[in-house]
Amino acid sequence: MYKRGWLFDLYPSGRGITLWIIDGDGAKTRGYVPFMPRFYMNVKSADRGRVEMLARKLHSSVTEGWVEKTEIYSGKRIPVMEISVPGTLHFREIVRRFEYEFPYYVFFDSDLTPAQMFLYEKNLFPLAFGTFTFADDDRLMSIELEDSFDAIDYATPPLGIMTIGPSRTDIQPRYQSGRIISLEAGYDGREYTIEADTAEELLTRLNAHILRCDPDVILSRYGDYTLFPLLADLSRKTRIPLQFNRDASADYTRTAEVSYWSYGQIVHRAGAFELAGRWHIDTENSFIMDQSDLSGLLDLARITCIPVQQQARTSIGTGLSSMQLAWAYRHDTLIPAKKQEWEKFKTASELLLADRGGLIFLPTMGYHEQIAELDFASMYPSLMAMHNISPETINCGCCDNHAVPELGYTICERRRGIVPETLGAVLEKRAEYKKREKSAADPRAKNEFHKRQTALKWLLVTCFGYLGYKNARFGRIEAHESVNAFSREALLHAKRIAEERGYSVLHGIVDCLWLKKEGATEEDYKLLCDVIKNEIGVTISLEGIYKWILFPASRMDGGIPTANRYVGTYTNGEVKVRGLEVRRGDIPLFTRKVQGEVIELMSKASGIDELKLLIPEIMDTVKYHLEILKSGRVPPLELVVRHTISKDADEYENNSMQAVVSRAMAEAGVALKPGETAEYIIIDHTGKKNPSKAKPFIFYRPEDGYDVEKYAEITMKSIEILLEPLGYEIEAKPPKKKRAKKEMQQEIEFGSFFK
User: Which of these, 108, 410, 581, 613, could form a disulfide with 718 (CB 3.0-4.6 Å)?
Assistant: First the structure.
């Protein structure tokens, strides 16, 4: 049987790897491929007997033998022992036993999943298009690909999509009272409410909708967190099978939730609940869905060779690692399961020289007019590709060229590194997507290209950080330092070029420059970009010319500017904001709305003089919202403060609002894990009248009131940052009472807002 279509899904099964193919009409075909996953060990020949003994003990069909593979750092062929595991379901279990028995030996390929190995070995990728030939027993016999993982022009299969979520969306399902919850399902352009009095009734009605829709993709809200585990638990208790899996013979794939530190912040990730023969994507547990929707996710899965359900939940760095693993696997290069290269010793002076980040020119504080912003396109990955920066190419041992500026590190001239090899396709694809997005006349096509290039942007953003990540198997701090050194040199060179041509540099941050030259036109700035590109080798473009831009002072010290906070309006009317309250998720929506309205008003101004003329209108806007605040009429959702919990409730030693909220949640039986977000409303920030200070949003009632003074203070500070540089100082006389209740109409006296 021949099937021309797309590789939709794959997963380990008792028959090896089970595959699902979807053709152009949406018809699905299931097949299988016998597959033996393998891993490698760098053991001494004297220990071969112990390896053979353990292999026979674990499974009679586990085989071992000596093979030669390429070691990535030296580039030399070395002998390693290959362990072949029969079947795919027990691969991880067998690997764990070998790791336990041989803790001091180096393992290769042992942490790959059988599905990844299959894709790497067969040169396949998710949604690969081609002709699949099956035998009468559904065994896959051959594949003729008509596609490539880095293709720019490709089609996707017709996918049936169903949405499932709780009827109440303001609170996560696990916080809602009662075990039986109301669901909302959507498909074929219609929305359905699934309500039931019993678990049996709920499951029966949900199954009926799934069978009627027969979706290829289920997009859920809180499916991983709560919804699907709850429904699976009800299914087990009532013995009513759920119809989530298209493959009834397969189990769900579930992983545990986890909290971990990343770039100095604690992060929480919910466990996964994956299906067989269908995709389940929890939009609340997928960074890439939030950033680039399904189009970006599919493009990312194709280029990273990670099955779609895993790619939706995994970190961007894992996707980058998979690209490198695929390249290594296909080039017969060993993939260390754990990092083998550690940072070399440095003297104190060497460390001071090397351990520096990107270059920053602190901005000139205040408002400025007619400022141009120039932005290097994917600067760091471009430098990595251009200069062949990779863990195995830095200080390679075969060359001696001291090519890295300031540091004097050598870069290999004899072989291309794994990092630039894998980045090339991403850089080319994203550049083409951005080009097509800019030129597309059809809004749908423009949006499609935007989603795809956004997904690839995150791959490129991550690639630099992973070079210095301590646990990245292909990471190496010297490679990370080399990229920073080249970037500093590039920004300095660009600054010199601009200043030689009469431009003044007001601000610079890593890969961006803000310039000014009296009388300079858009064409002048574009010509400057061409000169910089030709001399440095990295594309730089004009982002736009600001009618006005504000570089505010630091909140900690009014005499010091901040590098990553600014707001301005381009000549085309577009507003750009970075680092201010309106962009921050931890700031109450009320404050963000007020600041956003003020910035929208300010965007009308063509310069500083017109900004000052708008002050009365800004004052009226702020007064209007503060009157609503003091009257108690602000909706609770607009008052919610969000903060990430850094520890368990019983580990807090202070009485901060986060600690109070965390303890309250734990006492109610819904303890937050480190990395999860606490959502609360401030009742009395001082704790003098109400020791609880704040109340978790899920327990909040309108009669609890809220701290008018604190919310006014937060809001006024967000306005002060905009108006103080114009010479206006805000003064707010606090209300006599701090708490506001809906039924109360208390007066609030404001002093002179501006003077």
Answer: 581
Show the CA angle centred on residue 219, arms to residues 261 and 9, nearest 5°. Answer: 90
CA dihedral 237, 239, 241, 247 (to 10 degrees): 100
The distance of Cα 425 from the centroid of its chain, to the nearest Å, equals 20
More confident residue, 256 or 569: 569
Burial class (CB in 10 A: 0-12, 13-18, 19+), 685: middle
Report the C-alpha gap between 602 and 573 in whole angstroms. Answer: 11
Q: How far apart are CA 173 and CA 178, in angstroms?
A: 10
Q: Are 692 and 683 in contact (CB under 8 A)?
A: yes
pLDDT digits (tens, 9 = 90+) for 679-716: 899 998 888 877 888 998 888 888 889 999 999 999 99
* Predicted confidence (pLDDT) per residue in 3-40, tens digit: 999 999 999 999 999 999 999 999 999 999 999 999 99
* E strands in 28-126: 28-33, 38-42, 63-70, 77-84, 106-108
Look at residue 645 and give its three-state secondary structure.
coil
- Global pTM reads 0.86
Residue that the structure tokens 């109610």 belong to: 668
- Can you list the alpha helix ranges (DSSP code H) found in 314-442? 316-330, 348-354, 379-386, 418-439
| DSSP E strands, 96-251 | 106-108, 129-134, 140-145, 161-166, 183-187, 190-194, 217-220
**Going by DSSP bridges, is the β-strand pair 129-134/2-13 parallel, antiparallel, or unpaired?**
antiparallel
- 106-108 and 77-84: which strand pairing? unpaired
Which of 561, 450, 458 has the alpha carbon at shortest distance from 514? 561
In sequence order, the 6+-apart residues with CB closer than 8 A to the CB of 102 are: 41, 43, 47, 50, 51
The pair of three-digit structure tokens given for residue 319, joined into one six-digit string: 């996707």
Q: Which amino acid is present at 375?
A: D
Q: What is the CA radius of gyration of the chain?
A: 29
